[in-house]
Design a protein that fits this description.
Number of helices: 6
Helix content: over 70%
Oligomer: single chain
Shape: globular
Largest sheet: none
Radius of gyration: 20 Å
Order of helices and strands: HHHHHH
């Protein structure tokens, strides 16, 4: 069973990593980068403030920071070292001989789960819960899927890395929203308790 899943994982990866063109190499190397998305993030922030107002937009941004911190830190610093799965492009991985490296994108470290998938799906899940718009939800999840596919195209993750990263990220996104919402609703009571210790 495990061998079958591993074989399927590798075949799907080779499907995405094995069809290269100069245009796709350029496009996917940009999509998988971080800085290219800064204008997109600024647009999202602007939408939040227009739809939610300053107070709730600010609270949402706090939740976003918490969600991405949890997704990135737990996946990269806790789960990856424990699982220790080599990236498909890692020279120490025998499978790397079948991988095409794109634009010298050759990250080190471990592979499972994908932090790109975790971070993007954390953001997508959280914002879809806040915005409550079918069009926005479709747009933000399509973006998360495209970023995740770019990781397959570049040969730095297996499909199961992406799927599990997306699952972790979705959980962290929703969890961060719940945590910030609960803390915000508790703040007035906490403030009153501090000002009047006799009030519990």
């Amino acid at each position: 069973m495990i061998e079958t899943l591993t074989s399927l994982d590798e075949q799907i990866l080779l499907f995405f990593n094995g069809h290269h063109t100069a245009f796709l190499d350029e496009a996917m190397s940009l999509i998988t980068g971080k800085w290219i998305w800064i204008p997109f993030y600024l647009i999202l922030i602007d939408l939040l403030f227009k739809k939610l107002g300053p107070k709730y937009a600010a609270l949402t941004l706090v939740a976003v920071v918490l969600a991405i911190f949890m997704a990135d830190h737990i996946c990269a610093s806790v789960i990856r070292p424990y699982i220790g799965r080599l990236r498909p492009c890692n020279p120490e991985n025998p499978f790397s001989e079948y991988i095409t490296i794109v634009k010298n994108i050759h990250p080190g470290g471990y592979s499972w789960p994908s932090c790109h998938a975790a971070n993007t799906f954390a953001l997508a899940t959280l914002l879809s819960c806040v915005m409550r718009s079918r069009k926005f939800t479709a747009m933000i999840f399509i973006w998360a899927v495209i970023v995740s596919i770019s990781r397959l195209y570049c040969g730095v993750h297996y499909p199961t890395d992406i799927l599990c990263g997306a699952a972790f990220g979705s959980v962290f996104g929703y969890l961060a929203l719940v945590i910030v919402s609960r803390l915000y609703s508790a703040l007035p009571r906490m403030y009153m308790a501090i000002r009047r210790p006799d009030v519990l």
